[in-house]
Design a protein that fits this description.
globular, 16 helices, nine-stranded mixed sheet, Rossmann fold, alpha/beta, 3 domains, GMP Synthetase, Chain A, domain 3
């Protein structure tokens, strides 16, 4: 098992088909294989232990991914939005490293110890010419390591609760995920996947591997904006795409006032990476009436998607008058056939349907390992996700956010997600975040930050009454503040710590 087998099969099956389209650069599957071979030779000659990229989506990303697999080195896509000090610290953790980046970053990074730094355009020129860098070449028939336990990718977490951890994904995890979820050669020559999530996100890595195995053309959008996404999707006749919730919300806003999105080629639109507001997905389904929507709940530590709300589930929920069925529109669907999911209470007991707890997952694609920290899998291979949620009677999974975000008010555990959904149902609320803030009487009090939906904002009392009428009084926010926007990271995750810090700081 090695990721290179996916590219080898694609090159043998449809080598003349376009594999990657990025601006003016286009590579067929045969050319992607040859470019990967050339860079693998350069990696082998470098003596480095890792290959890292500090780059937006570009052809260097898929070439680097497969070249690393060919050379037997871990591939490390780094977050280019981090500060200089943060990046220096991450690079130091993977030295000696062969690092590919934008030309303007080279002078600084080249001064770091044990870092061989190469400008992206130089590497691409050599790779597309099939030339190795400064040493020998790998012969065309050179084999790659086939040990399934070798590390394929290291992905650093966002570090929102501390120093970033490096999630370890071995070849067996990633290949197992692809083989279980993608049919080889299932794409037609016209199929194209628009990749707009950053390469240091697991969805970016999964998009490359799954597109290659299916034979789909990868269309790269280096920097997301709703307008650029729509324009690229139209120009390239994109058939498949993945977005995070904040991206979809901006796309929907950009199409405001139109009867449809005007993207008839777009057959499938998947989303994930954060909680999708029901109002956004309902608006999106009206704008994209002929598009099949899928909500993919995934984890870096599990090689991407573990649960899916498919197109039929979306349509059934949207059209249903039954509250329990319509509610599934905000679920993440049911586990993939190759994955098992359980909900457990704080002492590890599996709970009944409808009961909240921590989500545990098990399957061949699940790693649950961090570099230097070892495996976090518990008995019988289960991974504690630290996400809270519940399963309904039909096995649909509802994710409510991180366990650490639970508000403990007077000994009662309150889910922020449950309160947020009620607030978003109010016509005057565009977005909201609910957090716990210190309270002398109850330990924590429920507080909310609301982004109004145009015009005059609803009053604090109006929103409090709205929640109280629909939930128990203990879940009613004792404090509501209004803001123009909420803090999200680039992959669509709400940064609750910043919301909480803002509110606590104000109170002081």
């Amino acid at each position: 098992m090695n990721l290179m087998m996916l590219l080898e099969m694609a090159s043998a099956g449809f080598g003349e088909r376009v594999a990657v389209k990025s601006g003016e650069i286009s590579l067929t599957y045969a050319e992607l294989l040859e470019a990967s071979r050339a860079v693998a030779a350069e990696l082998a000659d470098s003596g480095c232990a890792h290959m890292a990229t500090l780059d937006v989506s570009s052809p260097a990303i898929p070439i680097g991914l497969f070249a690393s697999a060919w050379a037997g080195l871990p591939f490390v896509p780094l977050n280019y939005r981090l500060t200089g000090e943060e990046l220096d610290a991450l690079v130091e953790r993977v030295t000696p490293v062969f690092l590919v980046t934008e030309r303007e970053r080279v002078p600084h990074l080249a001064n770091l110890p044990d870092a061989r730094v190469v400008a992206r355009d130089e590497l691409l020129d050599r790779a597309r010419g099939g030339r190795a860098g400064t040493g020998g070449e790998l012969p065309a028939d050179s084999s790659w390591p086939m040990d399934p336990d070798e590390i394929a990718i290291l992905l650093f977490t966002s570090g929102t609760t501390g120093a970033p951890k490096a999630a370890v994904l071995r070849h067996k995890h990633l290949v197992s995920y692809i083989l279980a979820s993608v049919e080889f050669g299932s794409a037609s020559e016209q199929d194209a996947a628009l990749v707009s999530v950053p390469p240091y996100h697991i969805a970016g890595m999964a998009a490359i591997a799954s597109s290659v195995y299916s034979g789909r053309r990868i269309v790269q959008l280096p920097n997301f904006s709703a307008e650029a996404w729509i324009e690229t999707a139209r120009a390239e006749q994109v058939t498949h795409a993945f977005v995070v919730p904040t991206m979809l919300a901006r796309i929907v806003d950009a199409l405001e006032g139109q009867q449809s999105a005007g993207l008839p080629a777009l057959r499938a639109l998947s989303y994930g990476g954060g909680k999708m507001p029901q109002s956004v997905i309902e608006r999106a389904m009206r704008l994209f009436p002929d598009t099949a929507f899928a909500n993919a709940y995934g984890l870096t530590e599990a090689s991407s998607t573990i649960s899916l709300l498919g197109p039929d589930d979306h349509r059934a929920a949207l059209e249903s008058e039954e509250p329990s069925v319509r509610q599934r529109l905000i679920s993440v669907g049911r586990p993939l056939p190759s994955v098992e999911i359980e909900i457990r209470d704080p002492i590890g007991n599996v709970v009944a349907p409808g009961t909240r707890g921590e989500i545990f997952v098990r399957g061949e694609q699940v790693s649950g390992e961090y570099l230097g920290r070892g495996s976090t899998l518990v008995e019988e291979g289960w991974f504690p996700t630290r996400d809270g949620g519940w399963l309904d009677a039909e096995g649909y999974l509802f994710v409510e956010g991180r366990i650490d975000d639970i508000i403990v008010r007077g000994g009662e555990n309150l889910s922020p997600g449950e309160i947020e959904e009620i607030l978003r149902e109010h016509t005057g609320v565009s977005d909201c975040a609910v957090v716990g803030v210190p309270d002398e009487r109850w330990g924590e009090a429920v507080a909310a930050v609301v982004v109004p939906r145009g015009g005059e904002a609803p009053s604090e009392g109006e929103l409090q009454s709205w929640v109280k009428e629909r939930l128990r009084s203990s879940r009613t926010p004792e404090r509501i503040e209004f803001r123009e926007s909420l803090p999200y990271n680039e992959t669509g995750k709400l940064l609750r710590r910043l919301v909480r810090a803002d509110l606590v700081g104000e109170r002081r």
